[in-house]
Design a protein that fits this description.
Number of helices: 9
Distance between the termini: 34 Å
Strand order of the largest sheet: 6-7-8-3-9-10
Shape: globular
Number of strands: 10
Helix content: 25-40%
Low-confidence stretches: none
Order of helices and strands: EEEHEEHEHHHEHEHEEHH
Length: 250
């Protein structure tokens, strides 16, 4: 059995009295693609944001690539470890969050320069490679306002990859895109999976879940309602809750 690169144990998240994540566990092995789907408000995005501490977990242990952080301990004291963990976990959001005053290239090199202190010529060389990989070489000197949503999201993926993460987290990366632009982002994600990147993806793109995921999770009311390989999940779900959800969206 391959050692898990992501380990989550007993993860809880409260927002005041609201119990959003209710003690979930998860192991993800290196190179695995896990897709999380489910109704709105079920905790999917919060779970993803807890993985790299954009949301502070209320309880539980998160380990990424052997770096372990226990939410029971003071997170302030663990700040350096959290920063290291974030470098291991690239994240792509619904909104592209590009710096509007920077070109595509400048957006991609910003974090390697400031966080990793990478030499500028090395960062530029890496960024140019990645922009070519996402099909945007010719857009390197364009500002975000001159790019389509799909192009902006592909720049955002290149930006996350430029930090050389061990895992990639995608939080509904296509939900802000016009339908005709969705495939250009999904294609990049599929290529990333083919190249062996470990990925946890929250998405409504069920064909991506069917075709690319190793496992699909239905998250509802803050818990895993069902976890199964896509073939089983979509054709023969065990749980009534999954059957109802799939009937509603398929």
């Amino acid at each position: 059995m391959t050692e898990a690169i992501i380990k989550v144990r007993g993860l809880h998240k409260y927002f005041g009295p609201l119990h959003v994540i209710k003690g979930v566990d998860l192991d993800v092995t290196s190179g695995e693609v896990v897709v999380v789907i489910g109704p709105s408000g079920g905790g999917k995005s919060t779970f993803l944001r807890c993985l790299n501490f954009l949301e502070e977990p209320s309880a539980g242990v998160i380990e990424i690539d052997t770096l372990k952080i226990n939410a029971e301990e003071s997170l302030r004291r663990q700040r350096k470890r959290i920063q290291k963990l974030r470098q291991k976990a690239g994240m792509v959001f619904q909104q592209f969050n590009l710096f509007p005053h920077m070109t595509a290239l400048e957006n991609v090199i910003e974090a390697p320069l400031t966080v990793k202190k990478m030499p500028r010529n090395e960062a530029i060389s890496k960024a140019e490679e990645l922009l070519e990989w996402v099909g945007l070489s010719e857009k390197r000197d364009e500002y975000p306002s001159r790019l389509s949503g799909g192009q902006q999201q592909r720049v955002a993926i290149a930006r996350a990859l430029c930090m050389e993460p061990k895992i990639m987290l995608f939080d509904e990366p296509t939900s802000a895109l016009d339908p005709e632009l969705i495939n250009e982002v999904v294609d990049v994600m599929e290529r990333l999976a083919d190249e062996g990147m470990t990925m946890v993806v929250v998405t409504h793109e069920l064909h991506f879940a069917r075709d690319v995921a190793d496992r699909v999770i239905l998250m509802a009311d803050g818990v895993w309602a069902e976890i199964a390989p896509p073939g089983e999940f979509f054709t023969n779900p065990k749980e009534e809750r999954t059957r109802r959800f799939l009937a509603h969206i398929l």
